[in-house]
Amino acid sequence: MLAERGLLMQAPDGTRRNRNRNHQHFEHTCDAQQQNVIEAEPLTIYHQPAWRAIDPERKPQALMDASARQRDLVALAHATPAAEADQCAAWVERVFLRMGLGVVTGDASALYHAWCQSSDTRCLRVGMIVAVPAHPYGAGGRSWGHVGLYLGDSRVRHCTDGHLADAPLELWTSVYGVMAEPRWGWLGGIALGS
Fold first, then answer.
1. Cβ(10)–Cβ(143) under 8 Å?
2. Closest by alpha carbon to 150, among 68, 71, 56, 50?
3. Same structural domain, 99 and 181
4. Where are the residues of the annotated region Disordered (predicted)?
5. Do 61 and 107 share a domain, yes or no?
């Protein structure tokens, strides 16, 4: 069954194994059709991880550890109305504009390439943008990518299809990170906290 789904690989010792559900240890399995295979982490068709779990040792900043400016930005993220469909970057830019931080413009892909340098969750701070340069969910996503704001406590707020949504960081990075690695950084290079 695992062989049919392409989740098995050959182990270095020549045995065939598959991982248990929590990925903590290996169990030997038998399959008459495919011998000497070990289960691998599933990848998307774009060769990106299918699930981007957050290591408990690499947790991002919690909201309670945020500065007053960071918490103000979170409040504005909840108060700023949604933008039109395919305008996720415009919504993020409006939140920063309402904060009085100036105007930074561009689509999500441009913001990703200009301001998002890190993919280490320990470096993710409240108020940072979280972005991907492309995703496969429509022509806009393929061309312009997607961006949201990190709210703390492993939550991302983003504008999708003209609606605002909050998502767990693991889910957001896994869903939108199927074509490219999600990264984060301070919009405009303006750090709101440490």
1. no
2. 71
3. yes
4. 1-20
5. yes
Closest to 88 measured CA to CA, from 70, 112, 68: 112
pTM of the model: 0.78
Phi, psi of 78 (to 5 degrees): -80, -25
State how far the Cα of 184 lies from the Cα of 164, in Å rounded to an integer.
19
Question: CATH number for the domain including 148?
Answer: 3.90.1720.10
How many structural domains comprise the chain? 2
- Same domain? For 26 and 93 the reply is no
What gap in Å lies between CA 102 and CA 139, rounded to an integer? 29
Look up the domain containing 27 and give its range: 1-40
DSSP 110: H
Closest CA to 50 of 39, 38, 35: 39
Q: For the segment 138-154, what is each residue's pLDDT rounded down to a tens digit?
A: 989 999 999 999 999 99
Instruction: Please tell me the distance from the alpha carbon of residue 96 to that of residue 89, in angstroms, as a whole number.
Output: 11
